[in-house]
Inverse folding.
């Protein structure tokens, strides 16, 4: 089957299933489930895939679902991944299909990702006779919460044909992107998304009366304030200027009173980097600066760094292939250069184990991600499921050429 014929068939297949894809998305949106609690979502996925006659594995990393579409001809294996979990946010969109779960919402588009991949599965299943290899459909739990579902699923063998043997040749995923016109595609080779580590600093000393700070060995509020300011030098004076990096503190807890200096102040923040070598060097600097600054004010500092997801790296040669496929399927005017993105994504673990690419899907002026008003344009689901189907078909059909490019 030629490229033009494949595009024609896939576009023709999208139109009749789009209403169903939208209904899947709305059903998932009504019932948002937090990390590793995606039981109803996983059940909907399992039922949908089983109706297609696909062999389905459930319970991977607790709530993960995996299915495979085996083409009529032999060839490589490609993974297509969607995440399923929601966020602890109270929805305020006022939609007819608004969240029925108090304090939970699909505010990051994972309902979009899951419904879109179900649509892709239906299209590819119809093209089974023209597939040269295997498409592995991975529906992943817990992208939003450490340690993340991707690492758990990989440990349980989602990339293996048998224990210890990786057989996946490429892995692809998409992420909704507000602010881009609905249905557009954003692509960036190389480093794309940041690592994300959690920073916790507890500054301690013996507290006392706020009216008599001279009697206190170390004022922890003053010390913690200087720690926050001093830690900004980690980026401004230690990070190479060509390495994007961010250190921010979003939570400060000083549980004293107007006339009480407490015994401890807790600082909580995030450290993000686009370079793995700098990332771990910065950890040592953060510990040193926080400890020495607190000591200078007569206090101590306990520093905890919780290691999060690594920086996400899109294989350059394969990403060039994805861009060519996107322009062929959606048109050159629909494909955009994606900017560096300081969000993090545990799909990075898949890309450490296999070559691949994560690209973005424009969903219009939907409001920002991770907010109570996030409301993506459902028209983007047409491109979401159609392009991913074409990308998988194209990769399996052209894998020999891609190997030569790598």
């Amino acid at each position: 089957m030629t490229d033009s014929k494949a595009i024609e068939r896939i576009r023709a297949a999208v139109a009749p299933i789009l209403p169903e894809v939208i209904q899947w998305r709305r059903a998932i949106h009504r019932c948002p489930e937090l990390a590793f609690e995606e039981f109803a979502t996983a059940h909907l996925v399992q039922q949908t895939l089983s109706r297609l006659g696909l062999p389905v594995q459930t319970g991977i990393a607790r709530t993960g679902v995996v299915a495979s579409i085996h083409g009529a001809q032999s060839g490589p294996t490609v993974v297509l991944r969607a995440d399923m979990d929601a966020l602890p946010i109270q929805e305020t969109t006022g939609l007819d299909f608004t969240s029925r779960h108090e304090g939970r919402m699909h505010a990051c588009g994972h309902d979009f990702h899951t419904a879109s991949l179900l649509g892709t599965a239906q299209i590819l299943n119809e093209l089974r006779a023209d597939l040269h290899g295997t498409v592995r459909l991975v529906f992943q739990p817990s992208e939003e919460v450490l340690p993340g579902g991707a690492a758990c699923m990989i440990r349980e063998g989602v990339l293996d044909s048998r224990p210890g043997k990786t057989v996946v040749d490429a892995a692809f995923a998409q992420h909704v992107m507000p602010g881009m016109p609905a249905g557009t595609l954003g692509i960036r080779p190389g480093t794309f998304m940041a690592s994300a580590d959690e920073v916790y600093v507890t500054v301690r000393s013996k507290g006392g009366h706020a009216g008599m700070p001279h009697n206190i060995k170390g004022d922890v509020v003053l010390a913690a304030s200087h720690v926050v300011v001093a830690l900004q030098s980690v980026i401004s004076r230690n990070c190479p200027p060509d390495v994007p990096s961010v250190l921010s503190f979003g939570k400060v807890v000083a549980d004293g009173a107007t006339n009480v200096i407490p015994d401890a102040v807790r600082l909580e923040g995030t450290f993000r980097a686009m370079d793995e070598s700098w990332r771990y060097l910065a950890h040592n600097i953060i510990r040193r600066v926080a400890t020495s600054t607190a000591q200078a004010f007569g206090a101590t500092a306990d520093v905890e760094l919780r290691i999060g997801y690594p920086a996400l790296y899109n294989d350059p040669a394969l990403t060039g292939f994805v861009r060519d496929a996107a322009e062929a399927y959606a048109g050159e005017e629909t494909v955009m250069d994606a900017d560096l993105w300081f969000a993090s994504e545990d799909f990075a673990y898949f890309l450490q184990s296999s070559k691949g690419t994560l690209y973005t899907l424009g969903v219009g002026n939907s409001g920002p991600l991770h907010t109570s008003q996030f409301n993506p344009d459902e028209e983007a689901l047409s491109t979401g499921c159609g392009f991913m189907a074409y990308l998988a078909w194209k990769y399996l059909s052209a894998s020999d050429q891609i190997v030569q490019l790598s």
Summary: The mean pLDDT is 95.
